[in-house]
Here is the input.
Amino acid sequence: MTCDRVQHNIILAQYGELPDELGFQLEQHLNTCEACRREWTAIQILHQELAIDPMLDPSPNLLASSRMRLEEALDAMPPRSLFQRFVGNAFRWQGMLKSAPALATLLLGVGFVGGTGLARYEAAQQPQMPQAVVMSNAQQGAIASVSGIVQTPNSQLVQVKYNRLIPETVQGSLDDPQIRELLMLGTKLSTDNEVHAQSVAMLSDECRAGRHCEEEPQGGATVSTVRGALLASLHSDRNPSVRLKALDGLQPYVAKDQHVRDAVLDAMMHDASPDVRTEAISLLSPVGADASVRQALRTVSTEDVNPAIRNASFQALQNVGEIQ
Here is the structure.
């Protein structure tokens, strides 16, 4: 009896499944082979250690619930594909045809060739996934969009969620330049209309409160990036409510910023929303002494097709004194 066979018989003997006629041969081999005898001793010691903690039988409730979960999982399994059924049948045929090795070999060969061809066909029919874009430095990639804004009630704390390759979140005060930069990006790059409106509203509130909306030196010129974001929203946003909010934030600067005044004049003359035009007229009333503003109000009060707009312009002119 070889050592390989003895190793197998040792396992069977430990579990009481070795036939009696092989037990004597095993005993004789162990008397003459030191290596197999050490293996026999090690397995005996292992069984003694395992016997210290007896195996507990599972409760009937656990068995019943486990069987139910198994049945539910089997019912929830999707139907097998043609290739999977073919492979499963091939294994069953192999067991049934052990007595006919030549036929079994032939069927297994045909099944292997057919299965390989079918697998290649299914793989060719699967939709090709786009290759992942590999960036040399993903952390420094451009911001793709702003996807969420949450402001802590009654505080300057705001949380802005923005997207690079994966969603990222930054939290900080509205006084932080990075937070303001992300809010300005939210007015242009947001993938969600509500997020876009929130960005404009927060920037407008900052300007109304006189924070971070003044002109700053940049590249040899003085600009206000926050004010510029509100001007862009007033000019091109499709949502009248957002344009109204942008107007509200620009109100403190109509008198002292010619660019803001021109943008408000343009909104009064050409905006598609009557509400936006009426609000623009209201913002221009305090600067009605300006010749261009006065002329625009006269034009609208006499030529506009909307009676409400004509009346609002006329009332604004009545409240303006004569130009000195």
